[in-house]
Amino acid sequence: MSQIPTDLKYVASHEWVRLEPDGSLTIGITDHAQAALGDLVFVEAPEAGRVLKAGDSCAVVESVKAASDVYAPVAGTVTAANPALTDAPELLNSDPYGDAWLWKMQPADPAALEKLLDADGYAKALADA
Amino acid sequence: MLKTTALHAEHQRLNARLVDFAGWDMPIQYASQLEEHHAVRRAAGMFDVAHMTAVDVTGADATDFLRHLLANDVAKLAVVGRALYATMLREDGGVIDDLIVYRTGDQAYRLVVNAGTTDKDVAWLQQHSAGRAVAVQRRDDLGILAVQGPTASALTLPHLPATLRDAVAALKPFNAAWKDRVFVGRTGYTGEDGFELILPHDDLVSLWRALEAAGVVPCGLGARDTLRLEAGMNLYGQDMDESRHPLESGLGWTIAWAPEDRDFIGRAALERIRQGAPAQFIGLVLEGRGVLRAHMPVRFADGRKGETTSGGFAPTLKQSIALARVEAGSEGACEVQIRGQWLPARRVKPPFVRHGKVRV
After folding, report:
1. B89 to B97, B138, B313: CA distances (angstroms)
2. How many independent structural domains does chain A possess?
């Protein structure tokens, strides 16, 4: 069974979102996503300053098997991409909710977060898939 | 309903991720495809390839028959036990299949053909055997296990019948030995030393378990693909098929042109193609980060173009590599288009890796 931490928000397309104390967001892909992709070998995350609309295809993660798009969970502005993933994309396999975050962003509308899935909702989305 | 090999329950026990491969429910990976790949480069791994098929061709005309059916020449197999790689072609030169043929007797051969092509291969062979003293026997009673890697031989030998051990230990590449129910070829699809063992299905399961206990790592089709790609070996259906001839698929070396009077199917077409300028088949190494995949556009500084036929991340090089078909005479700086961006690639001559060593 894949891990689904209860303190995060989720999108059915397998992104997770963490609300930081300063109101910024940290984005990554779920444990389920990394397991389905297999060994990750390449990550391309959005650059700082990029303005995202919700649902924008803005990052690519590639495993030994396939390339997969990652979508912006909410609208906002990218503040940082995770530099560690450039040389160590395998972190996505070992620590998808920790060291392997993909990017940080400032949301355009903090309330948008409320429309995302909670852990139970994401677990249900996985079960229905 | 997917077909399963005798090892299917073993794959389930090992929590393999199973996928539909040519109608067979096969393991693509167990725990980590990268670790499986490295196990074969550094130690030993084993692959269930029982979805592939052994086909025995025997009879007084067997040699003449295969000299007509295959673009490589079985007359090169001067000694019983030797093997060679060959393509079987249509009249127009399109590749029906690629295969290994072992000489198993004076007028006896064993072919190992791909899973997805077995039915058409056997039909083609049988159709052309009409009127000849040849029997084509599909050996669905046998399965195939590949054990590959620098320690594959040492780990496999103790599990072979005592009477076969010395003969197998002494096998040179592309040679086989057999006794009773056990057939062992020193062949493979990884660029490493190792064996392909052809056995009755029950024996396959017991050998798999013994090798697993001995430390041979079960490997899925994912690792098999990255290993063969690094080894510069073609995958049928991807790097060549019935619409592509060997001369544009990097397989010119497998065509035996001499003797000139050997009339193999496809020869006339290939002779014509050879006079022109067939596309070239090359290796590419992506200079920067990213992953090459099949069907990506390729361009050269001189304006000539091409397309990748296979591509992926090469775990041994820690870079991405590809095989590509490009216009004849292509020269100058090379680029590959990944998601709209042209990225520089280095043109190389495969193999990329042999016996654990990077060659490009």
Report:
1. 7, 19, 31
2. 1
